[in-house]
Design goal:
alpha+beta, Jelly Rolls, about 325 residues, single chain
C-alpha cells in the first residue's frame, strides 16, 4: 500500500511538471497551456432610434453585426439597423425626435447614424414637427461629455421609397439630417416629403429618383450642385451626374405612397401606446438625471439648512433672558 501511494505521488508530480533534475518547476509553454479563458467582450448596445409603430407583411431589421430579426408592432429600432419591406408590406417608423417615416413595399432602408438627446429639448415629445419651433424648450443641465455628442439623423435609401415628416433634428442645423440615395443626397428645411428611387422595379425609362414636397422644402445635392424643391412641387434626377428636373405633375412613381386605409386605425392606436411608453421612459430618465445632480434630494437641502443654522447659533448665540421663578407656598398659593 505504501509503495502504491509513492507510485501515485510520482505520477502526479510528473503530470504537474515537477520532479525534474535540479528541483526546478517545468512550465508548459505550449499555446494550449498558456491559454486562459477570458470572457468575450460584450458588444456595445446601439442607441435606440425609435419604434416600429406598424409592421405589415414581411418587415425585417438587420443589425450592423448581421443579426436579422422580424419586426412587429411596437418593436424598437436602433441606430445602424437596415430595414427591409417585402411585397405588399409597410413599416411605419416613429423616431425619438418626433420624426415619422412610412416605408412602402419593396424598400431597403438603413439608419446609418442616429443620436438624439431628449434632455437638450426638455424631454418634450415632438410629434411630427413640420416647422421648427420658434422657441425651443429649455434645456436641462447635462454633463460636458453628453454635450459633446452632436445630434444627427443620417439615413440611406438603397431602393424603394418612403413618406417622411421630420422631427427636431435638422431644424436648427440642416446638415444634421440627411438621406443618402444612389442618385443624390437629400437635406431638409423643416419638411414633410416623399421619395422613391426606381432601379429595376419601375417601368422602362423611369429609372431615377423622384421627390415630392408636402410642406417645407428639401435640398438635393449631387455632382451637378444643389437644387431646392418647395412645397407643392415634384422633381426627378436620373443619376448623380444629371441635372435636377422640375415636374409639373405628380409622377406615376409616387403613387400608392400612403398607408392603406385598412391599417390606419391600428396604426393610430399603436402610435398612442408608443408615445405613452416613451413619455414614461423619459420621465424615468429625467428623474435619474435629477438624482445624479442632487443624490440626496430634499434631505440634502434640509441638512445644509440645519448646518447653517448651527453655525449661526454658534457664532451669535441668542441672548437668554432670566425667567422669574415661581414660588409655591405649602398651602398651594403662589408667592
Amino acid at each position: 500500500m505504501y509503495r502504491y501511494s509513492l507510485r501515485v505521488a510520482a505520477m502526479l508530480m510528473a503530470m504537474s511538471g515537477m520532479g525534474l533534475p535540479g528541483g526546478s518547476l517545468a512550465q508548459d509553454t505550449s499555446p494550449a497551456a498558456t491559454y486562459t479563458a477570458t470572457a468575450a467582450p460584450a458588444e456595445p448596445q446601439p442607441e435606440q432610434a425609435g419604434s416600429a409603430v406598424l409592421a405589415v407583411g414581411t418587415v425585417t431589421a438587420t443589425t450592423v453585426a448581421g443579426h436579422r430579426r422580424q419586426l412587429r408592432d411596437g418593436d424598437t429600432i436602433y441606430s445602424g439597423d437596415a430595414i427591409s419591406t417585402g411585397d405588399d408590406s409597410y413599416a411605419d417608423l416613429d423616431f425619438e425626435d418626433g420624426g415619422r417615416m412610412l416605408l412602402r413595399p419593396d424598400t431597403d432602408f438603413q439608419i446609418q447614424r442616429y443620436h438624439y438627446d431628449p434632455a437638450a429639448h426638455g424631454y418634450a415629445l415632438a410629434v411630427a414637427q413640420v416647422t421648427a419651433p420658434t422657441t425651443p424648450p429649455p434645456a436641462s443641465p447635462q454633463p460636458a461629455e453628453a454635450q459633446q455628442q452632436h445630434e444627427s439623423a443620417l439615413f440611406r435609401l438603397i431602393k424603394g421609397g418612403f413618406r417622411a415628416i421630420s422631427g427636431f433634428i435638422g431644424h436648427v442645423e440642416h446638415q444634421d439630417y440627411a438621406v443618402d440615395t444612389p442618385v443624390a443626397t437629400i437635406g431638409i428645411r423643416g419638411t414633410g416629403y416623399e421619395v422613391r428611387y426606381c432601379a429595376n422595379n419601375c417601368a422602362p425609362g423611369e429609372q431615377g429618383l423622384y421627390t415630392g414636397v408636402d410642406k417645407g422644402a428639401i435640398a438635393l445635392r449631387n455632382q451637378t450642385g444643389e437644387s431646392i424643391t418647395t412645397a407643392g412641387h415634384f422633381g426627378y434626377v436620373e443619376n448623380r451626374s444629371s441635372l435636377f428636373r422640375l415636374l409639373h405633375h405628380p409622377p406615376r412613381a409616387l403613387q400608392h405612397m400612403n398607408l392603406p386605409a385598412r391599417y390606419r386605425n391600428r396604426d393610430r392606436g399603436n402610435f398612442r401606446r408608443i408615445q405613452m411608453r416613451r413619455q414614461y421612459r423619459w420621465r424615468q430618465a429625467a428623474e435619474h438625471r435629477r438624482r445624479l445632480w442632487n443624490p440626496r434630494g430634499i434631505h440634502a437641502r434640509n441638512g445644509l439648512a440645519n448646518i447653517r443654522h448651527k453655525r449661526a447659533t454658534r457664532l451669535h448665540p441668542p441672548v437668554q433672558t432670566r425667567k422669574k421663578r415661581k414660588h409655591r407656598h405649602h398651602d398651594g398659593r403662589r408667592g
